[in-house]
């Protein structure tokens, strides 16, 4: 729970008060605020996407029996994006450009709340550093590298892509 800071009303933990006192909003609070704005503006795509994301977070909280921390909330949002990417693949196979367009619009809404993705160059540099740190020299030691690397990446790159790049780096 957020501690009241000096000069901040102890009972004022709402988003408006948090921004006034430069206390960063959580992802869930940002989603709720964006939902309110979407409802005011009448943006149907953003409204439904944010409602689905908040519902997924709420379901995870119910399942866990406690509020989610930022990492867990971020993981839920990434899972939602991944689900929509799979929907795009399925819609393309079924030759449904309308579904592809709607899923892409939903991904664009969700990606506003995710951390900025790592560039290819930054990712490759992190992989090289992890390989040097672990002393890995063959693809058989890929697990060591991935254990060191994945906590550093924390959702800023697709795990499948990271795995492929690590495998390439260890083979070459």
Characteristic terms for this protein:
172 residues, mainly alpha, Arc Repressor Mutant, subunit A, 8 helices, 70% helix
Describe the structure.
The structure is a single chain. The chain has two domains: 15-111, Uncharacterised protein YqeY/AIM41, N-terminal domain (Hypothetical Protein Yqey, Chain: A, domain1, Orthogonal Bundle); 120-171, Arc Repressor Mutant, subunit A. The chain is built from eight helices and no strands. The model is unreliable at 1-10 (pLDDT under 50). α2 packs antiparallel against α3 and α6 packs across α7. 70% of the residues lie in helices and 0% in strands.
Short description:
This protein is mostly helical and 172 residues long. It has helices spanning 15-20, 27-41, 44-64, 70-93, 97-111, 120-134, 142-153, 159-171.
Helix and strand topology:
Blueprint lengths: L14 H6 L6 H15 L2 H21 L5 H24 L3 H15 L8 H15 L7 H12 L5 H13 L1
Helix pairs in contact: 2-3, 3-4, 3-5, 4-5, 6-7, 6-8, 7-8
Q: What spatial form do the alpha-carbon principal axes imply?
A: globular
Domains (count): 2
The CATH topology label of the largest domain is Hypothetical Protein Yqey, Chain: A, domain1
**CATH architectural type of the largest domain:** Orthogonal Bundle
Oligomer: single chain
**Count of beta strands:** 0
- CATH homologous superfamily of the largest domain - what is it? Uncharacterised protein YqeY/AIM41, N-terminal domain
